[in-house]
TrEMBL record:
PANTHER family in alphabetical order: PKSB, RETINOL DEHYDROGENASE 10
Molecular function GO terms recorded: oxidoreductase activity, acting on the CH-OH group of donors, NAD or NADP as acceptor
Keywords tagged on the record: Oxidoreductase
Family of this protein: Belongs to the short-chain dehydrogenases/reductases (SDR) family.
Name of the protein in its database record: NADP-dependent 3-hydroxy acid dehydrogenase YdfG
Coiled-coil intervals, chain numbering: none
InterPro entries, per the entry: NAD(P)-bd_dom_sf (IPR036291), SDR_fam (IPR002347)
Residue spans crossing the bilayer: none
Organism: Actinacidiphila yanglinensis
UniProt superkingdom: Bacteria
Signal peptide annotation: none
């Protein structure tokens, strides 16, 4: 599928999976509006994409723990386009440590704010631009940690809480936005391999039944869901954990 007519916003695209997704969507022709907590990080990804011959990419700073920063991000995007077709909620701080007492209060607050509050406010800020599209999709990278009963991660309890909040938000959002034609698509991956999409590893990373989930497969899931006819609402992708 060509994404030449898609305008996509991706949060936390300065590194890791957000960067991967931004590069792949730009390669497929999408116009990409990417953010990172610092402008320098967003610009690094932007420049990598432009070096691949894709000029339609824009970089912004957005701190998902700061409501004003989120509003400013959406406003800046709105000055450059009259619609957004896909919003990817990728930003969420990871916090490690299975002992509740192991994390400082400030780190717990930051984890919950970026993953839970940040996701809600990002959708709220971009909703007018999404409603201006004839093919609006909200994609949220949640985590297996947002699945009821999951316990196999060494993530901190606060990360579990943030991901559970994202899952609850996505569930009600899907029901309430469907009458307006907005699809809400959630992914619940366990830990996965994320080879650099600009390296040889991208094509050589094993993807067999006994191997860990890869970012290539996660990108494929997102592309598949977004490419479906508008009567097809794929709410969630859940994955077996190796």
């Amino acid at each position: 599928m060509s994404f030449d007519d898609h305008r996509v916003v991706i949060t936390a695209a300065g590194r890791d999976f957000g960067r991967t997704l931004a590069i792949r969507l730009a390669d497929l022709g999408a116009e990409v509006f990417l953010s990172a907590r610092t402008l320098a990080a967003a610009e690094r990804t932007r420049d990598e994409i432009r070096e691949r011959g894709h000029p339609r990419v824009h970089a912004f700073a957005c701190d998902l723990t700061d409501p004003a920063s989120i509003r400013d991000f959406a406003a800046e995007v709105g000055r450059r386009t009259d619609r957004i077709d896909v919003l990817v909620n990728n930003g969420s701080r990871y916090l490690e440590g299975p002992d509740l007492l192991s994390a400082a209060d400030a780190d717990i607050v930051d984890t919950l704010a970026s993953g839970a509050t940040g996701t809600v406010l990002t959708v709220k800020s971009f909703l007018p631009l999404l409603l201006a599209s004839d093919k609006p999709d909200v994609v949220t990278m949640i985590s297996a940690c947002g699945t009821a009963g999951h316990h196999r991660s060494d993530a901190h309890d606060a990360f579990y809480a943030a991901k559970s909040a994202q899952a609850g938000f996505a569930e009600i959002l899907s029901r309430r936005l469907r009458p307006q034609g907005v699809r809400v698509i959630s992914l619940y991956p366990p830990d996965f391999d994320n080879p650099d999409p600009l390296s040889a590893e991208w094509d050589t990373t094993p993807r067999g039944a006994q191997d860990a989930l890869t970012s290539q497969s996660l990108v494929d899931c997102i592309l598949f869901a977004v490419a479906q006819p508008r009567d097809c609402f794929i709410k969630a992708f859940h994955f077996e954990q190796v």
